[in-house]
Amino acid sequence: MSRVVCQVARCFARAKTRGSVVLAIASILGCEPPPITDSGVIGVFGGVGLGPGQFSYPRAITAETSGSVFVVDKNGRVQRFSPDGVFESYWRMPETEHGKPVGLKVHPDGRVFVADTHYNRVMIFDRDGKLLGSFGSEGFGDGQFQLPTDVAFDAQGFIYVSEYYANDRITKWSPDLRFVAAFGETEIEGRRLSRPTGLVVDTEQTLWVADACNHRLVRFSLDGKVLNTFGRFGQEPGEMRYPYDISVSPDNTLLVCEYEGNRLQWFSKDGRSLRIWGHAGRAPGELFAPWGASYGPQGRVYVVDSLNSRVQVIRP
């Protein structure tokens, strides 16, 4: 990309600093837009409403590494956006009377798995919202759920689901959606899991759990053995306030989204705090009760800024 064309993008971006316009124009021209704020925000999209591209309390987000961004809100809609925040399509969950989903992930094969929390199941859609299947039912036994919150996948295609309320555990499912095992049901360093809300499998094929109400991360082997934990309640580096989501960065560090901390925090796998971004507020670069964050194309981070009804895009 020539310096002249990128300079055009920069000039245009300085003139248009709200919404998805900055990202879209820069993408067309082939270079990254300059940040909107000193903290590295390169785009903001969404807003309060029920129309396309608007949100009613968004509370889960997932991004494909080279494709779309999916957001589910408290209106029971799953919306799909381009990497640049341009609305593409949406669908509604089949049932919403009892409650709305709080988690979703895109499978490597493109299927969208939604933790249909208050219906105690995981539903599977194609990227356009066609229902492909579901698994789980309400209960306390094998193959049953109490308020599932998130989904993750390992390299062999096994599926992991977190749940809270009465179960507070992780269940493992085969690629053909059969129950395999449950773990995390006993005390871990003196405390049981308490509202595990975020899951991710790292490049070493270990499972990380955001143990929200214990304000910590727990690392499991894929057969359920506890490998290590770190974190405690607080606002200092290395401390957490309700970690609701976790993602793995391209350099294999951990990105944690803190709901009550109103920030993102990066950790090494041995628990060292590497960087903190964000604080409470309404302006770009500030957060109000964020539920989730996900790495997407070109190393961008997409943050679902829930009570601001928007998604912020940052370039760490």
What does this structure look like?
With 316 residues, the chain is mostly beta strands. It folds into two domains: 1-34; 40-314, Neuraminidase (6 Propeller). The chain has two helices and 26 strands. The strands form seven sheets. The protein has a four-stranded antiparallel beta sheet. A four-stranded antiparallel beta sheet has the order 2-3-4-5, with no helix packed on it. Strands 6-7-8-9 form a four-stranded antiparallel beta sheet, with no helix packed on it. A hairpin with a 5-residue loop joins strand 14 and strand 15. Helix 1 (3-15) runs antiparallel to helix 2. The protein is globular, with a radius of gyration of 19 Å.
List the helices and strands and how they pair.
Layout: H1 3-15, H2 21-29, E1 41-46, E2 58-63, E3 69-73, E4 77-81, E5 87-92, E6 103-106, E7 112-116, E8 121-125, E9 131-135, E10 137-138, E11 144-145, E12 148-153, E13 159-163, E14 169-173, E15 179-183, E16 196-201, E17 207-211, E18 216-220, E19 226-230, E20 243-248, E21 254-258, E22 263-267, E23 273-277, E24 292-295, E25 301-305, E26 310-314
Parallel strand pairs: 10-11
Antiparallel strand pairs: 1-26, 2-3, 3-4, 4-5, 6-7, 7-8, 8-9, 12-13, 13-14, 14-15, 16-17, 17-18, 18-19, 20-21, 21-22, 22-23, 24-25, 25-26
